[in-house]
Amino acid sequence: MAPPARGRTLEAGRAAAPRARESHPPGRVRRKLRIPGAVDPSWSEIPDACVCTTLRMLSRYASRRLDRVLAGHGITLTEFQLMLTLWEEGPAGTFALARRLRLDPGPTGRSLARLEGRGVVSRPQRWRFSAWVLEPAGTMHLELLEPIWHAVDETLRSEFGRALVTALVREVDRLPAWVPREGRGWFD
């Protein structure tokens, strides 16, 4: 007869992997989180859905259509947001744009440099902290994309409903802007 399998056993004598050691204090029951979207959509176990994963999935779903449209015009969603911010709010430095959009300043600067290479934004003064401005070519680009952007937005508003859209926008408005820590990078 074969030696007994280590760990738990399953039906028909198959061995299961041993349980990983629990990382929570003894006596305290830890809720198991689940990845959302794997159950019948008419029923959702809200208490056990991972919030971070849920928001990432919602974000990817919501931005997919606009991402595809923008890719056809050679820009990313982040680049589009940067152009829109410059269009709506006027010239701004890299750090101000990063704070406004809750982005890290390093990648924000690289996105602005790509846009500058395409001639849609520029820095009239060539020093590190100078303000970026939207060029006429960038304005034309946005005027072309604006109706498409509004159509995608209206579709999402219709799908998600007024209450969810209002709640999402209110929560984003409440998010703190990221601020630098002395010599230790950025935190939120």
Explained architecture:
By secondary structure, the chain is mainly α. It contains six helices and four strands, in the order ααααββααββ. The chain has helices at 51-72, 77-89, 94-101, 105-117, 136-160, 162-174, and strands at residues 121-122, 133-134, 179-181, 185-187. β3 (179-181) and β4 (185-187) form a beta hairpin. The longest helix has 25 residues, at 136-160. The radius of gyration is 24 Å and the shape is globular.
Q: What labels describe this entry?
A:
two-stranded antiparallel sheet; disordered N terminus; mainly alpha; 188 residues; two-stranded antiparallel ribbon; single chain
Strand order of the largest sheet: 1-2
> Termini, distance in Å?
59 Å
C-alpha-based Rg, rounded:
24 Å
Overall average residue pLDDT: 79
Amount of helix: 40-55%
Sequence of secondary-structure elements = HHHHEEHHEE
**DSSP summary: helix tally:** 6
β-sheet strand percentage: 5-15%
Q: Which regions are unreliable across 5 or more consecutive residues at pLDDT < 50?
A: 1-24
**What structural class should be given to the helix and strand makeup?**
mainly alpha
Overall shape: it is globular
Q: What is the β-strand count?
A: 4
Largest sheet, if any? Answer: 2 strands, antiparallel
Short characterization:
This protein has 188 residues and is mainly α. It has helices spanning 51-72, 77-89, 94-101, 105-117, 136-160, 162-174, and strands at residues 121-122, 133-134, 179-181, 185-187.
